[in-house]
Amino acid sequence: MAHIIGGIGIAHTPSMGMEYDRGRANGFDSRWGPWFEGLSPVRQWLERIRPTQLIVVYNDHLNHFDFDAYPTLAIGISSRFEQADEGWGRRPWPDMPGNPSFAIPLAEYLVRQSEFDLTVCQSLALDHGVYSWFPCLFDLPWKIPVTPIAVNMVRHPLPTSQRLARLGAEIRAAVQASDAGERVLVIATGGMSHQISGARFGISNQEFDQRFLKALPSEMDALMAIPQEDYMRYGGTEAAELSLWFAMRAALSPDAMPVYDHYTCPQITGCGVLAMTEPQFEQQSTKEQK
Ligand SMILES: [Fe+2]
């Protein structure tokens, strides 16, 4: 049986990726340094819990899909996922590994048992929704297979927070139904407060973001009761991406515990991370290391 051993919620922005590359070469500047330095405990935790599969719930930003056909939910099933060129060229990072042997049964369960209509993508170019933070958490060579699940956060109507929580719960059921002995980490990524267009361009709401980070582990229902329109009102239109984080929390058990969170707002987007663990697997991995 496969197990979900923990989860991560993390923000993404194009500038996060660019600043990471620049900072690795020349040192991080004073705005971005605290964000990258604050990710170190997550890296250390990942080394301790040793996931063998990553399910990444993210959103594309018109870099793979376009308005001709924008799926509400899609899953990537491939042995490699390339980086999308977002208009300024690809950053110097390799493709990410995938594992169809893990992803195909997951898709079969989600479509046939859970009745989630996922568009199956045999190729899926991943944009900054994944590539902006992934190199900050995982050292090269990237060996842990990634199964990306793309959620429409661009074209309205958007899937509701409740539906994304159900998706997370069904991911949990699908993993538990698997007889593969995998240690699965569920990562959900969505920008925190920000708005990249219109009269409110550049707004952020740090208090709102920090309340979300602290409340998600134990008060998800209260956060889901806030309409997505209010997330946009309080945190900018793109703050609706926070609803992806519900998929991560709902993929974990009620007993899951926060192990670390960190927040900064380097430029125009709130950057936060939350790592949560399933206590039984945290103890197990600690014991195995002794
Ligand atoms: Fe985004």
From TrEMBL:
Domain Extradiol ring-cleavage dioxygenase class III enzyme subunit B: from-to ranges: 8-257
UniProt keyword terms in alphabetical order: Dioxygenase, Oxidoreductase
Stored Pfam families: LigB
Domain of life: Bacteria
InterPro entries referenced in this protein's UniProt entry, alphabetically: Xdiol_dOase_suB
An MF annotation (GO) of this entry: ferrous iron binding
Name the UniProt record assigns to this protein: Protocatechuate 4,5-dioxygenase beta chain
